[in-house]
Prior knowledge:
Elements: E1 10-15, E2 22-26, H1 29-34, E3 40-41, E4 54-59, E5 71-78, E6 88-100, E7 105-111, E8 116-119, E9 125-133, H2 134-137, E10 150-163, E11 168-172, E12 178-185, E13 196-197, E14 201-203, E15 206-213, E16 225-232, H3 250-254, E17 257-266, E18 275-284, E19 289-297, H4 298-302, E20 314-328
Amino acid sequence: MKSLQINFWFSTSYSDSSPTHYTLKIASFSLLTKLSADKYESGEFEPYCMFALWKLVLYPNGNKKKNVEGHISVYLEMVGADSLQTGSEVYVDFRFFLLDQNKGMFLVLQEANKKEKCFHGMMRYSGFDKLVTLKSFTDASNGYVVDDSCVIGAEVFVCKERRAGNGESISMIKDAVMCKHVWKVENFSELGTECCKSEPFTARERKWKIKLYAKGNCDGNKGIHISLFSELDDPETLPCISHFLELTDPKKIAGSKVLAEVSLRIVDQMHAKHKCLKGTKWFSTSNPSWGWSKFISVDTLNQAGNGFLVKDACIVEAEVTVHGTAIAL
């Protein structure tokens, strides 16, 4: 009998008992290795644990994403991570079982040096890239694949749970698309000191507005400058910006941000010498607007030959390009 080739960092033992929590029996193992599908995911199981559900993930030809060849790869994956309290971590002791059909016993394999593994929302699986060589595993004299069938099992024991610290997750957008909005402000001379807002427009599934103060927005520039800003129209729904995040936690909403490149322009309707300023800013629920208090002087805007006011109307343009999002963990 040839010995089963097992990596040295595993601790091994034998057990008369079958796995307590999950058993996966595979008939026609050779056919499974020939299929195009690179992995098999078991059904979910709950090992007397209220914290999460689990499943076995088997790569019969090795995990190609880890450049594994000539071995079988086996992992334990936490599938109930979304149900965990925000920032929680679960520490587990897990072991895998291989049925030795010649001895009628299970070979038990687990990591030799560190028994507990930490699982959380960003670390959902752990296991062994090279559990055993495919050659020795399928050698019938070793007893693990007999008549082309085998049995693989798992036990999972939760050791402790703890709440992790706060954090953020940033997602950048590779092919960001610019959105342009044109706003014609008529009867400009009749505007008072109050803020005027454009109709909402959409950029990267977010609603935005342009804010204009015809007489300035603060004491230092009242009646001297025009103030112009871009603004998130619905910052309280910021978590919805990401297709894969659905959040209701107020703390997460408060920590959500949008990175946007903004260009604001007052159009020169006569000479095409527009007044334009631009910049990049993180927008959030606490800071939903950004722009310039001293965008252009009132005198420059009103000067007839400049073309910014024609028939008592000015044209304001906004270009918004969302480049990324951040959300509290």
